[in-house]
Write a structure and sequence with these properties.
The structure holds 3 protein chains of 3 kinds. By secondary structure, chain A is of the alpha/beta class. Chain A has 9 helices and 10 strands. In chain A, a hairpin with a 2-residue loop joins strand 1 and strand 2. Chain B is mainly alpha-helical. Chain C is an all-alpha fold. Helices cover 74% and strands 3% of the residues of chain C. Chain C is built from 12 helices and 2 strands. Chain C has a two-stranded antiparallel ribbon. The longest helix of chain C is centred in the first third of the chain and has 30 residues. Classes of the chains: A alpha/beta, B mainly alpha, C mainly alpha.
């Protein structure tokens, strides 16, 4: 299994605080990695660095062997890295279906098109298919603002997924989702990801979710990775130091 | 928006037929209103992205003066050519100013566009040898497709040229509206960062919309020049641009026809206000504007749209 | 006198006027986050009020230098009368709306005040040159300067200093700074946001009117002076950074000097200097020289 993401000695300070401090990690294709740690451990910052939203002071990031350190988010997206957000970033005033169609238009590099309608049949069908995979198809024509929290999370991920990323980074995919819906959301998600052969990393605070779905867990604290291994190992032994933080 | 699919062509037909029956002054007001409505349409397209252009006077005046120069210096008279020259001039101005302006948002965008239009204003005033300074230039009656037009028919002729231009413009903008680029504008407005994360070329998209908007501004400018028969530097002044912004707000961003409807209402109201209270028409307009802002957040179009939507869910 | 010195002096004088005219605009933006297009109208109101007071005062044949004291009085009158009216009547209702709608609301106010001024004072010009003439002229290195110009510099420097002290030292000033930094947190700290807003806006209005009042003796006060001032004030404020008083001072100085240089060296460019400076600054610093703090979205 070849490496899909290699981070080497990533470092970034906010003022005098080391948000990310010499983080080195390699992720192979097809992995499903959970990232855990207390608030301020550097999890979101790590995601922001990999996706180009922030620039590291030191260290390098390689995606499929290519150095992507310091590239703009849209370049990194184009190379195959997708991302979903802690707070779902949607186009709230537009219908759910339109949200996905816009993502598809961007994916196909056709977003500047003025000659053909957005809702052309092939694109519309593709959008419906994606919504169906995520269980959102019956909400297709509702404005995104009307979706419940779980639905918004799924749509947020669906938008990133529509770009057919090789690597998908998710920031707290189940936060804000009711306890009842959490597992349903993750079941849907994991199935879609496996069908598409997408490597995934997700930041999570809910240990039940991590224990159940992650194949590998990275524990972060104080900007560093303090544990790296299968969930039983990381959550079993290291849990007190890491989760309590 | 699809509910009124036939409303547009129907209105166009009605206006065309009415041309011969309406009194001259009303035809003039309608011509002016529709021409300005095109400029407002340009402003509205940018408003959809959350950008307010306080400098559309740049394209409005730029195109008008380009046509004016063509008439004065090259003796050109053909309406079709003049319109083409005007729009071309506007697109050049838009293409160049957009390189800088399209990078900015909100207040800075507004101020930058305002500055650009004021630079043109300054040039138009200063270069009086060529531009006639604050006196402006006279714009004689054009020929229509080579045909000479009798002076008394001039008004009607320009009216029909305007109607045709509006029809073409609306068709083009509708295409844009329903295409990915049109939707991308709304997406950028809702969540610009997300568009970037989807790999959407935000700067280029905004730039293209800006250039399209400038073309519309220029089209309106030439038509106004032809209908009024005279152009002066005030076309570039920021208060002129401000008027376009107000009408865009009045019409709302809900549909392609909204700016045209808003412009017609505005011009009619303005001519009445000016006729009966020449010393207080700005006061009336300002009060009306405040009322719209405080009471109707979606412009005039929104309550109408909501009403229509209720009937056709 | 060397050309450089002339340019420096002229630049300083014009910069003083620019600062007086723009300080209120940037202050109001910094606190209320509203870019007030009607700022120019407040300037005009200040000019008209000052002209009226100067003329009325002169008619009484009172002690002539008193006409100078009348000028700041006009500013206070306008600030106290119009400030609360506008803030409570209009602005208060639109704080929750998008910034662009707020901008348009102030544009509507500008239209209203344009006609209001014409209706109250009529379209004919007002001349209130008494304070200007009173101070006479002075000869510096072979060039004749009206003493009034230097009064303008003095007023601008004093106003700037007083404002700076007020914002950084006084209790109210600290409240203002807190609100500039974070309105939401300020309310949780028990700051009466509403009172800060109305007082700040009135102060901004008074400053605009002060600019107008001190300009009145130098010009013929006519309808339409508001329109020219708005563009100029915007340029200064955008260059300096929205909401920054030091920024407005630096921006004013920059424009003042560049314009003075243009007038003496390349006169035809005079009208454009202000926009050229703005374009250049924005290219290097997209948010102005002293930009407001930015908020991270994700």
């Amino acid at each position: 299994m070849r490496p899909i993401l290699e981070a080497t000695n990533l470092t970034l300070h906010f003022g005098s605080i080391a948000a990310v401090d010499g983080v080195t990690v390699t992720v192979s294709e097809g992995e499903l990695v959970g990232i855990i740690g207390p608030n301020g451990a550097g999890k979101t910052t790590f995601l922001n660095l990999v996706t180009g939203y922030l620039r590291p002071e030191a260290g390098r990031i390689h995606f499929l062997g290519r150095d992507i350190t310091g590239l703009h988010p849209d370049r990194i997206t184009a190379l195959g890295v997708g991302r979903s957000f802690q707070v779902p970033q949607l186009f709230l005033s537009l219908p759910v279906l339109d949200n996905v169609m816009i993502a598809l238009a961007c994916a196909g590099r056709r977003s500047l098109d003025v000659l053909h309608p957005l809702a052309e049949p092939s694109r519309r069908d593709a959008a419906h298919r994606i919504l169906a995979q995520f269980g959102l198809d019956r909400d297709a024509h509702r404005p995104a603002s009307e979706l419940p929290e779980g639905g918004r999370k799924l749509l947020d991920i669906a938008l990133a997924y529509a770009l057919r990323p090789r690597l998908l980074l998710m920031d707290e995919p189940t936060s804000g989702v009711s306890a009842l819906e959490k597992f349903a959301v993750m079941d849907t998600l994991v199935q879609v990801l496996q069908e598409g052969g997408v490597t995934a990393m997700f930041v999570e605070h809910d240990m039940d979710v991590v224990r159940r779905y992650a194949r590998r867990v990275l524990a972060m604290n104080g900007g560093r990775i303090v544990a790296d291994g299968p969930p039983e190992q990381v959550l079993g032994a290291a849990a007190p130091q890491v989760v309590g933080g | 928006m699809t509910a009124g699919r036939w409303a547009g062509p129907l209105a166009f037909l009605v206006l065309a037929l009415l041309g011969r029956t309406l009194p001259g002054w009303l035809v003039f007001v309608l011509t002016l209103a529709l021409a300005k409505g095109l400029v407002v349409m340009g402003v509205m397209l940018l408003m959809r992205v959350g950008l307010v252009s306080f400098g559309h006077g740049l394209f409005f005046a730029g195109a008008a003066y380009a046509a004016g120069f063509a008439m004065k210096l090259w003796g050109m008279r053909e309406a079709a050519l003049l319109v083409a020259i005007g729009v071309l001039a506007a697109v050049v101005l838009g293409g160049v100013s957009g390189l800088l302006a399209a990078r900015y948002r909100e207040i800075f965008f507004a101020m930058l566009t305002l500055a650009f239009s004021m630079v043109l204003y300054g040039v138009l005033i200063k270069a009086y040898a060529v531009t006639g300074g604050s006196d402006g230039l006279r714009v004689p009656v054009p020929t229509i497709l080579g045909l000479q037009v009798r002076p008394e028919q001039g008004r009607l002729a320009v009216y029909y040229v305007t109607l045709l231009s509006v029809a073409v413009a609306v068709a083009v903008v509708l295409r844009y509206w329903n295409a990915p680029l049109g939707y991308l504008m709304q997406a950028i407005r809702d969540n610009e960062v997300r568009v970037a994360y989807l790999g959407g070329p935000v700067s280029r998209a905004v730039y293209f919309t800006y250039v399209l908007s400038s073309a519309l501004g220029g089209l309106g400018g030439v038509l106004v020049a032809l209908s009024v028969g005279h152009i002066d530097p005030n076309l570039a002044y920021w208060t002129t641009s401000g008027e376009f912004v107000f009408v865009a707000l009045l019409g709302g961003t809900g549909g392609v026809h909204a700016p045209l409807a808003g412009a017609v209402v505005y011009e009619l109201l303005k001519s009445y206000a000016f006729k009966y209270t020449p010393y207080a028409w700005q006061l009336l307009m300002g009060t009306a504007m405040l009322a719209v802002i405080l009471l109707l957040p979606g412009g005039l179009w929104a309550p109408l749209q909501r009403a229509v939507r209720r009937q056709h869910p | 006198m060397a050309t450089v010195t002339i340019i420096a002096l002229d630049g300083l004088i014009f910069a003083s006027w620019l600062f007086l005219v723009s300080a209120g605009l940037t202050l109001v933006y910094g606190v209320l986050r509203v870019l007030n297009i009607a700022h120019g109208s407040l300037y005009a109101l200040g000019a008209y009020t000052a002209a009226t007071l100067v003329i009325a005062y002169s008619h009484r044949g009172l002690w002539p230098p008193g006409t100078l004291a009348v000028l700041p009085l006009a500013a206070v009158v306008v600030g106290a009368a119009v400030g609360p009216l506008v803030e409570r009547g209009i602005l208060q209702r639109i704080y929750a709306r998008e910034q662009i709608l707020q901008l348009l609301a102030t544009f509507a106010l500008f239209l209203i005040l344009e006609d209001a001024v014409k209706l109250i004072w009529g379209p004919s010009p007002y001349y209130a040159y008494r304070p200007y003439a009173l101070l006479g002229q002075v000869r510096l290195g072979g060039v004749v300067y009206p003493v009034y110009s230097f009064l303008l510099v003095l007023v601008a420097l004093s106003a700037g200093a007083l404002l700076w002290l007020f914002v950084t030292r006084s209790r109210f000033g600290r409240l203002v700074q807190a609100v500039i930094h974070d309105p939401e947190i300020s309310t949780t700290l028990g700051i009466n946001l509403s009172r800060v807003y109305v007082l700040t806006f009135s102060l901004g209005a008074a400053l605009a009117a002060l600019g107008g009042a001190f300009t009145a003796p130098m010009i013929s006060v006519v309808p339409g002076i508001a329109v020219e001032v708005i563009v100029v004030a915007f340029a200064v404020v955008v260059i300096g950074g929205l909401g920054s008083l030091p920024g407005a001072a630096v921006g004013a100085l920059l424009i003042g000097l560049v314009r003075a240089a243009a007038i003496h060296l390349v006169p035809v460019l005079e009208l454009f200097t202000i926009y050229v400076v703005m374009a250049v600054v924005l290219l290097a610093r997209p948010h102005g020289l002293f930009p407001p703090p930015e908020v991270r979205r994700i």
